[in-house]
Target: Speckle-type POZ protein
Amino acid sequence: MSTCTTPRVCGQHTFTIKDYTFSKGLGVGKFVRSMTFSIGGFEWSIRYYPDGINAKYQQYISLSLELMSTATQVRAIYAFRLKNTVHQSEWSSVEEPTVFNSESIRRRISNMEKFLERSHLEESSFLESDNLVIECSIIILKKHLVSDAETTSETVLPPSELSKDFEKLLESKQGSDVTFSVKGESFLAHRIVLAARSPVFMAELCGPWKEKEALCITVEDMEPNAFKALLQYIYTDRFLPSEEYDDNDKRDIVHHLLQAADRYSIEKLKLACENFLCKNLDVETVTATLALADQHGCNNLKDACLRYIASPDKMEKVMATEEYGSIKRKFPNLLVEILEGVCKFRKI
Model:
């Protein structure tokens, strides 16, 4: 028995477009080229067309992969996606391998004309502080190899159940050595788990000077459901299971959860809260979310709120809400930032 295999070399390159707003208006068919990068022994670059590669696709962001090496030919599969500090989009890939030929102007470039509609991009969370991060993945396909096949047995390992085991530990309360009292509700937990996940808990709960018997700590200025969600994240690394909350409750909890994440220096949870709120802005709560972002240093969330308020169909409705009047009294400095945001984002 013989086997045909295709050796592969994989690599990725990240191309960041800073100040996305200012890249618009470059013109249809005009592009910005990335620095040249090397994958699989070949030189490549990315072309970014902010106004589309041609008139037919001018409502899209277009991307191209260009072979920069000379006097060569290579077969490759490639894909693009967007990313931010919290998550990534799905890969947009070519359907089959592409043959790049440096001797032909047309064949040394492969285009993805309809990468993403510009309107969809500007409504998404992938524009962080007006920066656009494009990730390119390339798989270089080498010459086929034919060889004798060896039959081997392989044991399939089950997926990790670490988060489930820690969730059971939290629910069972076995071995708990600290109790938190939050507005009359008690939560039992394990000092060593909390300390491993939060430097604030590490300082509060561990160290040679801390008593070894069970502790009882009263937590001020926090809602019980937010503290419960905080513990669930600490033990399972899972952000608010969707089946446990409806949309309105989830948004309210995430407001409180972001404050808790900032209070206990759990940065990944704070980013997850920020990303959720960016995607769930509405007229009634956007000003409260803006104030929250300002208080806790969430710049991406703050930009998203200002962009939302600056929308011509949203501004008047936002100003008519009770929340806007409350923010105007409590945080007058934010009015200046809202005005600046309107001036900035309405130019887009």
